Amino acid sequence: MAWLVTGGAGYIGAHVVRAFQAEGIDVVVLDDLSSGHRGFVPQGVPFVEGSILDAALLREAFAAHDITGVVHVAGYKYAGVSVQRPLHTYEQNVTGTAVLLAAMQEAGVDAVVFSSSAAVYGTPDTDLVTEGTPKSPESPYGESKLIGEWLLRDQGVAAGLRHTSLRYFNVVGSGSPDVFDSSPHNLFPLVFEALLDGRTPKVFGDDYPTPDGTCVRDYIHVADLAVSHVVAAKRLDAGEPLESVYNLGSGDGVSVGQIMTAVADVTGVPFTPQIAPRRPGDPARIVASGELAARDLDWRMRHSLAQMVQSAWDARRAAS
Known about the structure:
With about 325 residues, the chain is of the alpha/beta class. It has 2 domains: about 1-170 and about 220-245, NAD(P)-binding Rossmann-like Domain (Rossmann fold), CATH 3.40.50; about 175-220 and about 250-285 and about 300-320, UDP-galactose 4-epimerase, domain 1. It contains 10 helices and 13 strands. It has helices spanning about 10-20, 55-65, 80, 85-105, 140-160, 185-195, 220-235, 255-265, 290-295, 305-320; strands at about 1-5, 25-30, 45-50, 65-70, 110-115, 160-170, 170, 200-205, 215, 220, 245, 255, 275. Helix 1 (about 10-20) crosses helix 7 (about 220-235) and helix 8 packs across helix 10 (about 305-320). The longest helix is centred in the N-terminal third of the chain and has 22 residues, at about 85-105. The mean pLDDT is about 95.
């Protein structure tokens, strides 16, 4: 019996694959390599190249492998770009999820852990986001993730699908030297690329009502995130009850200014970040409670900020 990890050749998915391996659980990876890397898939792990939109391919994958459940990480995740590409975003994240769920039902696979997002909350009006905080997504990406959660809920009612959705906040770091964040939109890669190119990293606004004037966000280590996916999968496999959604949040926050200081310390490249104007819609602080996930999914912050930065930097340099 194995778990299928869609998007398992991506930054987060590849860490989930390694977390399953660490528990001695077999995995199969399905990825279209649109943003993932074939080299992120460990040797010996069965790999199916293709899209979750390809129903025939999904049927073949379920028929060829003894799949007990799915961790669904595949999707188009660029919130800002989704505003310019709404139809593409909905096709990948909503239609793709529906096609996957249909293939699962046809194959008799009834357990799924879904990669959701903090983007479902939009700009919350609270200092500490909980699972009950009102959902008000502000991009097609955030909307598509919320619809994905609804699809799981409705399929649970209609067909007995056992499911849980994990809402991510800012995922950073690396748990393996051969897996790094290659996103052109995430903070850590942007800062590292600037330093490697001899440019000064930017901070968007330093006059927010926060201790150092820069935005405060919830940064979590990707390896910690991956562990909770495996715990969720094991509990679903055992028929144990889970909440329908969990926030994987720190309960605390780190400012962009603190991250810049940590990056300078870890890399040994001294710099004073360039202060750019605020970006429209950037709230001063978004931090989430992880209490429910700590109770049910062995969720905890196992890495300090320095360890997050060091692991990410080491992985990025190893890729050079």
